[in-house]
Write a structure and sequence with these properties.
By secondary structure, the protein is of the alpha/beta class. It has 14 helices and 15 strands.
Length: 373
């Protein structure tokens, strides 16, 4: 009997024999889908509710030639709950708005600009604001988990593709709330508060994961989100990250392994090299999406340094989708020796952007299938 996409994927990440490499993606920018509607490749109905792993997401993927969207996870809410009321504080002459977002961050937005909002200020500044506005919003409750949806998840043998359990964010969520500068200042000015915030978020993530696992649903992998690096390295001191955040990773990954989950991935943008050993030491063994960036990230040097302890999903340079077939061919050739290393599944190093040409994405899937299936 032929192996399913799920079985092939897990075998690859376990360095086991497999039959074919799945052709996977990491979803699309909303603007990309709108452009493809305007070009006649998709309909407006097809791009509605097209979140990761949804039926419309699968339909779009099949049209392009992908086997599935790798980023399919079930998880609870591990962030601010209830969210802050979003409200406009000021409307400026250029049409931009200063407003409070759901995390209690003061941001600048403009309706005709599609980008990450500029952070102007943060409501969380010190212990007083922590105790008054934030601490109670980072406590566990059953309302953080959609138990009805959890109960409907198919058994592993009924799933064609892998399904992960999302384990939250142990530092990226804090960075979101405090900002990079604010996080740094709290560490320097009030280390006791810094520790309390990290411990509160870590305990919340642990309790959410524990409750989901106690339901009896079996997952194929665990997954964390961080986004705590930029093009030159981490936004946090590695030694501080290891000391204060590492134990929370270890506690959660040990829980995952008690439930037979041995693949644990992590999504972090930027140059992550300085944090990789910390993640590996604390039970995270799969890097995703391996942002190529200007620094040329790749699974190859990590495999050379860490051996089979590390796996990867990602590392495909999506910028070739804006070029031509020759650029796509070169990228597929570049990926061949990386796949041969084992423990690695190529995937876009981020969501497919608006400059991607529909025909180039289709061509990529065709060439990948010829090369690896």
């Amino acid at each position: 009997m032929a192996m399913t996409l799920r079985e092939n994927s897990l075998a690859i990440l376990r360095y086991e024999n497999y039959e074919k490499l799945p052709i996977v993606n990491f979803g699309y920018w909303g603007e990309t889908l709108q452009k493809w509607v305007q070009e006649g490749h998709l309909t407006q109905d097809e791009i509605q509710n097209a979140g990761d792993g949804s039926e419309n997401d699968r339909r779009i993927g099949r049209k392009l030639g992908f086997d599935f969207n790798w980023y399919s996870c079930f998880g609870g809410s591990c962030g601010i709950h209830p969210p802050f009321e979003q409200k406009v504080l000021e409307v400026r002459e250029d049409g931009s708005k200063i407003m409070v977002d759901s995390n209690g961050v003061i941001v600048k937005v403009k309706d005709d600009i599609v980008s990450i909002p500029s952070e102007i200020d943060h409501m969380l500044k010190d212990r007083e604001s922590w105790e008054r506005d934030f601490k109670h919003r980072l406590q566990y409750s059953e309302s953080r988990i959609n138990l009805d949806a959890l109960a409907k998840i198919p058994r592993p043998e009924e799933r064609e593709t892998p399904l992960g359990i999302h384990c939250g964010s142990l530092f990226g969520e804090i960075r979101n709330i405090l900002g990079v500068e604010g996080t740094s200042y709290v560490y320097c000015d009030d280390e006791e508060l810094y520790d309390e915030i990290i411990d509160t978020v870590g305990e919340l993530c642990y309790k959410v994961v524990k409750r989901i696992l106690e339901s009896g649903v079996q997952f194929d992998f665990g997954h964390f989100w961080e986004d705590i690096c930029f093009k030159n390295g981490p936004l946090v001191i590695p030694s501080v990250f290891a000391e204060k955040v590492g134990p929370h990773y270890k506690k959660i990954t040990e829980l995952l392994r008690e439930h037979a989950i041995d693949i644990v991935s992590l999504d972090c943008d930027g140059q992550i090299d300085a944090l990789i050993p910390i993640w590996l030491e604390n039970g995270v063994n799969t890097m995703f999406p391996i942002e190529v960036g200007t620094w040329g990230a790749s699974i190859a040097p990590w495999r050379e340094k860490y051996g089979n302890a590390i796996r990867g999903v990602g590392g495909m340079n999506k910028t070739v989708f804006a070029q031509d077939y020759a650029a796509v061919d070169r990228e597929v050739e570049r990926l061949k020796p990386l796949v041969a290393l084992g423990g690695y599944i190529p995937c876009m190093d981020h969501r497919i952007p608006p400059d991607a040409k529909w025909e180039n994405v289709q061509y990529y899937c065709e060439q990948m299938r010829k090369a690896f299936q």
